[in-house]
Amino acid sequence: MHLFHTSTTIDNGICQELFATSIQMYEIRPLKVHLRTYNLKVVVNGRRIFVILLAEVLIYRIMQPTEVTKHTVASLRAAPVGDGHHGRDFYKYFFETHPEHRHFYKGAENYSGKDVLKSERFDKLGDAILLFVHVLANTYENESVFRAFVHRVMIEHFTRNIDPKLWKPFWEFWTGYLNSKGANLSAEQQTAWDILGTRFNEEAQSYLAKVGRNHA
């Protein structure tokens, strides 16, 4: 992803429309939406805010929460709940592509993808993670429910000593898994998962800090 180099940070931005000029200046009009965190140099001119780009940037079309739910849920057709062993397949993919994280699973530190497929333990863990992700996708547009469920996911993982830094890259693992299942994520679906993952991580870290747990 392209980055800005900044003096000020705008987080979960306030943007409705972005208007490009020949000098790469963008006007931002207020509307709360979920965007990635970018570092920007901000120049205030009266009641308007102008953001000058200090580096090349990829601009996303603004996506409303209902659209995030729509696109993430649509992509989950590749990994439905209660149909086969799709959750277990996630762990097979995860262990094969990111073996450096196997140490979080005591007794399975040396498992191969084939070992995962024969494991009842990973059948159960897979069912749980699949359900978690489906609920998060289906509730994204309902902020209070989404936030409460993120808290529940954190509580479920308290005893597993998961490195809090992994909550953000987890969503890269997840979209990689979906593509391995034939989802062939569209640009809009990928963006929707990026937005959901960013919001999930922010809420997770905020909650972990609030309850006195390690956070990133």
Commentary on this structure:
Belongs to the globin family. This is Globin domain-containing protein. Keywords: Heme, Iron, Metal-binding, Oxygen transport, Transport. Residues 67-209 form the Globin domain. The chain is an alpha+beta fold. The chain has 2 domains: 8-52, no CATH class; 65-210, Globins (Globin-like), CATH 1.10.490. It has helices at residues 65-75, 86-97, 113-117, 120-139, 143-156, 170-180, 187-210, and strands spanning 8-10, 25-28, 38-45, 48-52. The protein has a 4-stranded antiparallel sheet, with no helix packed on it. A hairpin with a 2-residue loop joins β3 (38-45) and β4. α1 crosses α7 (187-210) and α2 (86-97) crosses α6. It is globular and about 40 Å long. It starts with 7 loop residues before the first strand and ends in a 6-residue tail after the last helix.
Describe the strand arrangement of the main beta sheet, using strand numbers: 1-3-4-2
- Quickly give the CATH architecture of the largest domain: Orthogonal Bundle
SSE pattern, N- to C-terminal:
EEEEHHHHHHH
Name the CATH superfamily classification of the largest domain. Globins
Intertermini distance? 20 Å
How many helices in DSSP terms?
A: 7
**Global mean pLDDT:** 78
Gross morphology: globular
Keywords: Heme, Iron, Metal-binding, Oxygen transport, Transport
Family: Belongs to the globin family.
InterPro entries: Globin (IPR000971), Globin-like_sf (IPR009050), Globin/Proto (IPR012292), Mb-like_M (IPR044399)
Protein name: Globin domain-containing protein
